[in-house]
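As a warm-up, study this chain.
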Amino acid sequence: MRLGLSCCAALAIAALVPSTRVLGQEPTPVSAAEQTPPQLNEVEHGLYAGTQIGALMLYLPGTGAGVGWGTLVGVSLGYDFTPVVGLGFFAWGLALSPPSNYQGLESNPTVSGDLTGILPGLELVLHLPLSSDRSEVDRLFLNIAAGGGALFLNPNGLVSTKGTLPAAMADLGLEYFTHLRHFSLGLALDGLAAFQSGGSLYGGALSVFARYSF
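Now compare it with the structure written out below.
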């Protein structure tokens, strides 16, 4: 009987020894990278894509010269090298209704009707922070942009015999980066001028835009 009790005690001690060793082991250290979750930028600055739409007015030179009214639709693709400086490509589509008696620079009454155009180009953009939120994150920016490109007009001969004019643009806008990461909304005042020997086109647009930053 005593031998049986001794065997049972020995088996119980043998079973407890591994458990004691496990309990005595120190916990495996956790690296700082595993302890700290990755930090996400509240406002992203980098590659971006955007779209805009607005109301357009242009002064048209020539016979029946006057102001035409229409719309501007645009897309943009660019990269912010820093939160302040960016370089982008833009493409504007223009649709304009000239004055009813407008005959253009060629004084050719057979060429008339609405005027359309496409303006692709490059722009340099400055983003100047204006306001931050409670977490000290800059969300409202003043955008100042300048650039140039080529304005392709249709119909040919109404304003320009070539149909293609060198053009310059300038932009002043407000951009707000929303709490939905990557998305921003804004309002822009755009200036446009196209140059030719017979007389320059110039005017501007007031547009709203939205952008997605990657």
